[in-house]
Amino acid sequence: MPNKKYILSLALLFSTNALAITNGQAVNNNNYQSIIHSQHCTGTIIGGKWVLTAQHCSTTNNTYTQVITSHDKKTTNVSQQINYRDWNNNGVDIDAALWQLPYNIAINHITIITPSPVKAGQDVTIFGYGGTENQLNKTTHRIIARSDSQKYAISLNNNYQGQTVGGDSGAPYFDKNNHLVAIHKGVQFQPNLQSNFAIGTKVSAFKNFILDTINGWNYPTNINNVIGSKTITVQSLHNDVIQDQATTTGDVNIDFNNSSCSSNDLISPYDTCTYVITSHGQRGTLNLSPTESIIVNNTAINKDKDEDKDKDKEQPIINPNNKSGGGSIGIFIFTLLSLIAFKRRK
């Protein structure tokens, strides 16, 4: 038995799937609504209904259904998995995948993705759900220079306050501007140095994969409590330059003078711009395209629906004398039972 325990301990030590963010810092899930998790990995919602994660998180031959859990603990089945290896034709296999969902996930702000270079000496913060069930954690590490690293990979010194591997595969790496610059691949143990290195894949390595697959906007899908003006940031993940074509419905209007998206300038891939909208607090939509809409003040319409449901409920029956009909029936039954008891005594 002791030998079995020793073998198990070694297996846990060297397995990249057994560990997770440990000694990291817990964060409020609601502040990072675009970060989600599947059964075994972490991912990021982009473009409304796409999940960016690591390719090795995808299932093969439909062995089981991938299910993602969003910040509010709601679950959604993945409808399609698109791996980098299925898209590329240059013989290079990058550990990145995009999973398509059947509908948009409710998020109130986006994670901006940038293919800009990342360099040694730069700090990145990793956000992951690995080993913590539904609690999101973060840890910050510094990118280190390694002569043996592949050009599309980055290495982090993983010996600080939080160590991240395993269930954090696919987790986003944020730079100091809170832009996603890489995703987590795994951990590499260096016996000669007695050190762990976290390994990530740069967005710059699969930037065209994102554009060709999504070819749309990266946008928040659901924004509530808008009374007055609100600035909304969106990002182009189109595979070519585009121009603004936004429209609105309901209680939403665009302040064109203060919206950078409406400046008539061409918007290039990975560019961000803003819409300034106004609302009186009622429901409406900001339509970025015929198929991409941001729902504004969705809770307002839900409240109205709840009131309508209450109106539809059957009202209690009130008798003309303002006495409860149920009370009158109770008196009648009591009298009837008294008469039956009286007859039995006879």
UniProtKB/TrEMBL annotation:
Region ranges (Disordered): 300-322
Where are the compositionally biased (Basic and acidic residues) regions? 302-315
What EC number is given for this enzyme?
Answer: 3.4.21.-
Q: Which Pfam families does this UniProt record tie to the protein?
A: Trypsin (PF00089)
Please list every transmembrane segment annotated in the UniProt record, as residue ranges: 325-342
Q: Which organism is it from?
A: Photobacterium andalusiense
Domain Peptidase S1, which positions? 21-215
Alphabetically, which GO biological process terms does the record hold?
proteolysis
UniProt record similarity statement: Belongs to the peptidase S1B family.
- What EC class is this? hydrolase
Provide the protein name.
Answer: Serine protease
- Keywords for the protein's UniProt record, in alphabetical order: Disulfide bond, Hydrolase, Membrane, Protease, Serine protease, Signal, Transmembrane, Transmembrane helix
For this chain, one GO molecular function annotation is: serine-type endopeptidase activity
Q: Where is the signal peptide?
A: 1-20
